[in-house]
Amino acid sequence: MTPHRPGRRPAESAPRVAVGIVLIDRRGAGCISTFNAAETFPTASVVKLLISIDLLTRDPNGSGSTERVERMLATSDDAAASALWSSGGADAIITRTRDLICLPSLSAPATPGDGDRPGSMPSGR
User: Fold this and answer.
1) The pTM is what?
2) Interaxial angle between packed helices 46-58 and 78-87, expressed in degrees from 0 to 180 and rounded to the nearest 10
3) Which residues lie closer than 8 Å to 44 by C-beta, 6 or more apart?
4) Do 20 and 122 touch, CB atoms closer than 8 A?
5) How far is CA 107 from CA 24, 36, 71, 95, 123, in A?
6) Distance from CA of residue 15 to its chain's centroid?
7) What phi and psi, each to the nearest 5 degrees, are found at residue 107?
8) What is the pLDDT along the chain (125 residues), one digit of tens a residue?
9) How far is CA 106 from CA 59, 119, 122, in A?
């Protein structure tokens, strides 16, 4: 992948990569700038973060899942992620976490059981 060069748009730096960006001033000025903000992108292994956030929100003590979560995050362990995804309610994980992490556009995968591919738009809309 070609590194980003100042003064060039991200899509010009890496033409085979789809990029969506939204810059938000968290101090209240709102949206500062966007690029491809209305596109939907697969989030791939980001779902492992959603699983972790959901589990910690529902059960701050981990109830024996701590080692599995650590392994899932440290090694991108898909088997651990699948087990936690199923036990956490699958698509319900997305429903419970999307507002918490300010990604209201995050949606369940189009194909049931395809938990590693929920979609999101950078704009969060």
Assistant:
1) 0.60
2) 40
3) 116, 117
4) yes
5) 21, 18, 25, 8, 13
6) 22
7) -130, 160
8) 444 455 555 555 556 677 778 777 777 767 788 888 777 777 667 788 889 989 988 887 767 788 888 889 999 888 888 889 888 888 889 888 887 777 777 777 665 554 445 555 444 44
9) 22, 6, 9
